[in-house]
Amino acid sequence: MENEHVDVLIVGAGLSGVGAACHLQRSLPNKTVAVLEARQDMGGTWDLFRYPGVRSDSDMFTLGYSFAPWGEDKGIAPGASILSYIRETASRYGVDRLIRFGHRVERAQWSSEESRWHVEALRADTGETVHLTCGFLHACTGYYRYDEGYTPEFGGRERFTGTIVHPQHWPEDLDCTGKRVVVIGSGATAVTLVPALAEHAEHVTMLQRSPSYILSIPNYDPIAARLRKRLSPKMTYSIVRWKNVLATLAIYQLSRKAPGMMRRFFVREATRQLPQGFDVGKHLSPSYEPWDQRLCLVPEHDFFNAMRDGSASIVTDRIDTFTETGIALASGEHLDADVVITATGLSLLALGGMTVSIDGAEVDLGKAVTYKGMMLSGVPNAAFTFGYTNASWTLRADLVSEYVCRLLKYMDAHDYAVATPVAPDPSAATEPFIDLKSGYVQRSLAFFPRQGATDPWRVHQNYLKDLRLLKHGPVDDAISFARSARRTTGAADHGGVPVTV
Ligand SMILES: Cc1cc2nc3c(=O)[nH]c(=O)nc-3n(C[C@H](O)[C@H](O)[C@H](O)COP(=O)(O)OP(=O)(O)OC[C@H]3O[C@@H](n4cnc5c(N)ncnc54)[C@H](O)[C@@H]3O)c2cc1C
Question: Which atom of ligand 1 is nearest to the CA of 62?
């Protein structure tokens, strides 16, 4: 029996996969599209994470889709609002009907004979393997494992008589009211959890090995509110989006170009919000430069308020061992705890764990070089979405989806069946895909593709550069096109005449 065939197969129905499908519906409504999603619901990150206070840490004017205005004046949104926004957008563009839930894609095999992908997905309900073919594959699988977060080995953990929870698997019935809570970690999740839990807990201690930069930002956007009275939602959204893109970019660029000045700025801002005598040098002055790791943004001083009113505190120390009643620290102190939350990060995973092969040869992702940060050298008719690490994910996700639409239109117009980025000089130096020095990134880099030194092999963490490259740049540079089902990998093929431009 023939396998079902679609023009475009999207893997993952999170923010990116839903967005990619919407772009296709808007730009290429005649293409057949299917979205395979491993879980039983859409939303990805915003459906999975259910811990108290879960929210965005970048503003929704830039985390929202370019084509679906965020209609509120508050930029930082709770997880539940983001999930509703994704669901509403999916329903508006009929994308909800394209999603097949409970389908985990395990394998994608390119056949040069047929100029198509053979995709295998495991069905959660029946355990059967489903086979599909597609002309173009778009992986919107996010960047981390869904089944487990990252937790380091903690000695004595089994002795602890309280509850230990990872924020990725928050028990619905966990009530921290009146309890002594220790949150291990100092990243975005920890600084979100601390003020949320401090509202009802007896006390919350953030236990960190080393500090992060934490900056408070206003949540309510008065400019958005004022513009909304005079302009259409679309115009308002576009203006506020640009304002926020430029502000975020400015903070990032200044951090990289004048790290000393920005370090002083972040530390001074933190000091201003904390009571006299708070040891800012110990708890809020990292040893790394600003943006070597992600900057933690908190809305309306909520994290600092919890420190000021005494409902929360920070301890900077190392864990010696868990005990029956809490955590013994290297300094000799002991933290009594009823609940310990291990906000120790994510386990990164490239392409949702799919194996990818071309004519039977498996692609070694750790050696592949990215093309414009969204395709892979030598891999035909496939894109992946990986958003910015220093700005809202969706800014890049939108650009990638638009690029895929442009590429497909270009291929249709020229009657091409295959588009393969041509591998750069194999001896050329490459660099890691992600340029953050955080432990969770460094641990996993070997499994992610590499980037080259120059365009189009460079991954830009810069929306303005990507606008030029992905939105306005050509779609045929360093790509080999072929008209029909023939071997194309590594060689330009256009009826025998190379067409690489
Ligand atoms: C707690 C938290 C807060 C965050 N806050 C922000 C923020 O404020 N701003 C920001 O820009 N970014 C933030 N991020 C990053 C965030 O992940 C992105 O913003 C965005 O949600 C990513 O969307 P995505 O669709 O690419 O990936 P995901 O949300 O991870 O969705 C991927 C989807 O693909 C599915 N999938 C994966 N593998 C397979 C497979 N093999 N087969 C089938 N389906 C598969 C998954 O089940 C999932 O539904 C945050 C991340 C976390 C964890």
Answer: 11
What residue owns the CA closest to ligand 1's atom 15? 393
Please check whether the two domains, 4-146+347-490 and 151-344, share a CATH topology. Answer: yes
What is the model's pTM?
0.95
- Identify the sign of the CA torsion 280, 281, 283, 285: positive
Do residues 101 and 39 make contact, with C-beta atoms less than 8 angstroms apart?
yes
Q: What is the distance between the alpha carbons of residues 186 and 317, in angstroms, rounded to a whole number?
A: 12
142 CA to middle of ligand 1, Å?
4
Domain coordinates in residue numbering, the chain: 4-146+347-490, 151-344
pLDDT band at 1 (very low <50, low <70, confident <90, very high): low
Which residue, among 104, 156, 57, has the nearest Cα to 391 in the 3D structure? Answer: 57
Shortest-distance atom of ligand 1 to CA 19: 25
CATH hierarchy code of domain 151-344: 3.50.50.60
Query: May I ask the CATH class of domain 4-146+347-490?
Result: alpha beta
Positive or negative, the Cα torsion across 30, 35, 41, 47?
A: negative
* pLDDT tens-digit series, residues 338-384: 999 999 999 999 999 999 999 999 999 999 999 999 999 999 999 99
450-486: burial string, b at 16+ Cβ within 10 Å, e else: bbbeeebbbbbbbbeebeebbeebebbebbbbbbeee
- Site residues for ligand 1, CB cut-off 6 Å: 11-17, 36-39, 44-45, 49, 56-58, 63, 104-105, 140-142, 146, 189, 352-354, 385, 387, 392-393
The whole-angstrom separation of Cα 371 and Cα 388 is 16
